[in-house]
Amino acid sequence: MKTIRMTDRWLSTVKVGAGREEFADAIVRGLRLRVTPRSKKWSVFTRISGKQSRVPLGDYPVVPLAAARDRADEVLSTDTIGEFQRKLQRYSSTKSPTMLSLCEDYTDQMQAKGQSSHKEYRRALCESPSSFCVFLQERLGREGLVADVNTAIVADWLRSIYERAPSHSRHCRAYLHAVFEWAIKAEYDYTSPQGRKSYGVTSNPVSSTPGGAKSKPRQRVLTSDELKLVWSHISEVSEPKVAKAIRTVISMGGLRISEIVGIQSSWCENGWLTLPETKNGREHSLPFTKLASIELEAELNSANETAQTYFFPNRSRKDEAMPITTTGRAVSRIIKHLEMEPFQLRDIRRTMKTHLLDKEYVEEREIDIWHNHGQKSDVARKHYSWAEYRSLKQRVADQIDRFLDDFIT
Fold this sequence. Notes:
The chain is an alpha+beta fold and 409 residues long. It has 3 domains: 1-94, Double Stranded RNA Binding Domain, CATH 3.30.160; 95-210, DNA polymerase, domain 1, CATH 1.10.150; 224-405, hpI Integrase, Chain A (Orthogonal Bundle), CATH 1.10.443.10. The chain has 16 helices and 8 strands. It has helices spanning 8-13, 65-76, 81-92, 99-112, 118-127, 132-140, 151-164, 166-186, 224-237, 240-251, 257-261, 290-306, 324-338, 346-358, 364-370, 379-405; strands spanning 2-4, 21-25, 31-35, 40-48, 51-59, 268-269, 272-275, 284-287. It has a 5-stranded mixed sheet, with helices on one face. The chain has a 3-stranded antiparallel sheet with strand order 6-7-8. A hairpin with a 2-residue loop joins strand 6 and strand 7. Helix 9 (224-237) packs across helix 13 (324-338) and helix 15 packs across helix 16. The radius of gyration is 25 Å and the shape is elongated. The two termini are 46 Å apart. The model is unreliable at 377-386 (pLDDT under 50). Belongs to the 'phage' integrase family. Keywords: DNA integration, DNA recombination, DNA-binding. Residues 199-218 are annotated as: Disordered. It comes from Hyphococcus aureus. Residues 217-401 form the Tyr recombinase domain.
């Protein structure tokens, strides 16, 4: 976050191309301006009863710089909870809150609680070109307010998502439903001493829409020829880093895409990758296959030279990992490009295990250890496993290279 000596001229020109950025005022301590492609919102951070709180102060230019500083000073001079609640209500009830502010407030509190899914919520509701806030703004021809949202608008948005990605529409509905449930409960949260902003929500407009049938996972195993086609042509339909991430899933024997895109340079040492926490909650160490080392050599050198955290960073926010949805879109494009039977990246895991077992490159116990399946987690076993499995994992890495060398290189 940058600290700026804010001026009216700067406020009228500051913009962000994507996502959002927050600026701190150099004159008034705690005054913030959050800028997105669609809005500029004032807020002030203060501490009341030992807890830090963000107080919304209105939108720029409706609230100019001088007024925002006056409001911030007034909030910062508050000594009692009663005064704080009155000022919070005063600044938050001047008009119906925007839908964007509601969604951002909700995802902010998710992030504060350490919920990693706040990124998926933010993309689906605020940031993506197909997000609900963008849809609402295009529908109304102006920034949408919470009061503008009804069941018909929600259904139209979900229909537009369903036509492109039926299974994703279920998630989008759940995200939006959770936001409105939170808005209803927030106003009456008696456990919060500082109170909450009132969003004017008394009923959930998402509740009347159907949840949809839960999708069943496909049991897809790609043939060797299909695997070769994906490897050879993925760079034709996606950016270089996206293609490299997908090829790394293959060259590492079917590791989860979430594990691959989240690789940090600090996790790599002496040709080994150590995942601090995996799906089963345990640390997992693996040697890089020779093919993966070749794929990731440039990323490792770049990370060391530029102090880059992630091998596969988010294109617009370098301090975050590449979204899994980015690789999912690349898979959709390669399916269309090659006219293949549909598959998902999770199917690579099943594919690699099936081929390695069928062609007798490895035993089932060995590939289960590689994929971190079915291992005991007691302390004694953990230390014994490191000594026992180090050579076993290296053998599996060599066999993965051998299998892929037969038809990819």
